[in-house]
């Protein structure tokens, strides 16, 4: 899938129309004739910019996510004294709360993410969120970062799948993620504190010689 490089008003109106349909009627309601009629354009114009329906939905969803889900995601260091848990959850809330307000966009994301070309949509998000997360994790043990990423990624994808199939409500996602991040970071920080306490006496003994 490729996103159109057109930046004109007609293209913006076309993508906005697709977003409106996704939010009001759902993924399956995005049909090219309906989109053309509501966007006041022709099917020929749509096909010239987006050869397939999937590419059109991909482009509209990507544009919405950049404007809403990733808005304000800027790499920055943790504040002095700020815990890993607090810093990371501030980031996660920023990127998940737009989905709470627009649950059908999450359904659309999951459909596109599960499609053959959906990895590109995920990579786009990782390119924005990844640097912000790594900045918050600056100074943290590399092994913990790898484990944290693997566990949280699995939890998030599982939660999105359960929401998409109707097993859980959209408002169940953040609380579950919150508990996951809390226990992972609490365990890491407790281990770091215990290590520091264990090392301190030996440092003191060497310094007293």
UniProtKB/TrEMBL annotation:
Pfam families: TetR_C_20 (PF17925), TetR_N (PF00440). Residues 8-68 form the HTH tetR-type domain. Keywords: DNA-binding, Transcription, Transcription regulation. The keyword Transcription regulation applies. It comes from the Bacteria. Residues 31-50 bind DNA. One of its GO terms (molecular function) is DNA-binding transcription factor activity. InterPro entries: Homeodomain-like_sf, HTH-type_TetR-like_transc_reg, HTH_TetR, KstR_C. PANTHER family: HTH-TYPE TRANSCRIPTIONAL REGULATOR BETI (PTHR30055:SF234), HTH-TYPE TRANSCRIPTIONAL REGULATOR RUTR (PTHR30055). This is TetR/AcrR family transcriptional regulator. The lineage of its organism: Bacteria, Bacillati, Actinomycetota, Actinomycetes, Mycobacteriales.
